[in-house]
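During the reporting period the student researcher (J.K.) took over the structure-prediction task from the postdoctoral fellow and processed the backlog of single-chain submissions. One of the processed entries is reproduced below for the supervisory committee.
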Amino acid sequence: MEAVITGVAVGAIMLVLNAAAAALGQARKKKKRESAQLEVCESRIDALEREAAETKELVKLTLSTCIIIGDGMVQSGINGDVKRAFCEKKQEALRML
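J.K. obtained the following structure tokens:
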């Protein structure tokens, strides 16, 4: 009888150990998968930050060009409400730069 009880106890312990080992293996796989996903997300963030910096520079160049063209138009004789509106927009643009 003791042999049967010992066998059942050893079997139960083995089941628990196998379940713990399987859970540990799954946790490791999950950690690796999440680490890989984190690396992908970090690289995407870096790429988006680079793209944002490039876009910001392009906006600055475009805005500067528009200001130069507008200044030329104002000096060429545009006056009144158009000139005033341009000057207001120019000041807003300069604050953005």
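The committee noted the following: The helical segments are 2-75, 81-96.
J.K. will present the remaining backlog at the next meeting.
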